[in-house]
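Async update (no meeting this week)

Hi team, since we skipped the sync, here's where things stand on the single-chain job. The sequence we agreed to prioritize is pasted below, unchanged from the tracker. I ran it this morning and attached the output directly underneath so nobody has to dig for it. Comments welcome in thread, and please keep replies under the output.
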Amino acid sequence: MLYLQQVGGWMHLTRLFDRHSIFSIITPSCQIIVAFYSSHANPGEPIFSQSKMVARTDGIGQFAIEGNFELDQAVLEALPVSGTEVISAHAYGMWVWARQARLVCRLPDGEIISYFLKVTTGESDKLMSHGQFEADKAINAVSKSFCPKPHAWGQYRSSEIPTYFLLADFREIGQQPPDAIRFTSQLVEFHKKSESPTGKFGFHITTCHGKAAQLTDLWDDSWELLYQKQLAHTFEADKQKHPDWPEFEYRKKLVLEKCIPRLLKPLQSEGRTIKPCLVHGNIWDQNTATDMETGEPFVFDGSAFYAHNEYELGNWRDPRHRLGSKTYIRNYKRSFPASEPEDEWDSRNLLYSLRFNTCAATLIPGSNYREHVFEDVGELCLRICPDDLAAFASDPQEDDTSSTREDTEEEEEEEEKEEEEEDEEEEDDSD
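Output:
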């Protein structure tokens, strides 16, 4: 949820996540403070982390460029029109993984134009910046109005810490998410119009879900096999990030070996075919918007690759997204009917949601997303392979472990009794 309020000249923009909050605070002097709050903070630990941006100066205390966002020479050289003058650079919007700014510029012919700048820090973020550039470029090539055109990406020169940027056309963000009918109509048109350059599923480069790298840089004729590889990659990242959970790992294995073949193979068998559609790859409430100038819906922060079009809607299943309302789903399916077998649409949607929500669990430690995925995986296995799901409870190895634990407890009790008896005998001897 989003909250905006003004207190004594201070504007507070708050994005509430599950047990987490991110605050973008605009002070009266137009400085931006970003703070992160977690209800999971331990006693005695600070509950806020804060970063404060200051304006770049020319060395004598004067602003080199009006605003409160520092610009690197690499950004200035990446401006698409030679001789462009940057008038101002102000922090813009709300962010989670990166800082953002609006650059107001004057072109050589005097025209005033704005660009969007996204800056992220960390060596691994090179992959994220490059991936988003290629994703947004591919989306914009299909529909220029549906995604801002990216112009450049690169690395800051003056920063000691590896810092990367993405420069794109600026679009003023209005209603989020956009109107259901207009947005789904644009999304369907985008999916149908797109064409895979190889005729296969995949992409030519790695793209990221937030900061998490996706397995997209491969091509395959089979959507079943490609998605199986991608979800296995996501499951493995989850395993590396969290404590061991044997039952969850068992359920993951069932999804990969039983559920995916059962649900996805029929899409491309018995004469059925599906088209590899370019998908944004991570559409949710906060990277869709209505353009304040044109009134048209658009998307940004792409994680694109060529996929089954229904994959796009997997992220909408979680109730935390307003896009998950029946209005958006119904209007999309009205223009782009469910693939055959049509009666398995909901199970496929549940399967596709696992990749999005597992990524969220990996990126936001301390949330309860992982528990939700565990339940969803169980629900899917219950639909597809109930006997295999039930087998975990009666697994001989589990029974052996239980028996061993019980035997150990009995042995410990016997040892305690023997020690007590020995103590009593010693006391009798002393008397």
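Quick observations from my side:
The first helix runs from residue 73 to 78.
Residues 1-64, 398-408 have pLDDT under 50 and may be disordered.
Reply here if anything looks off.
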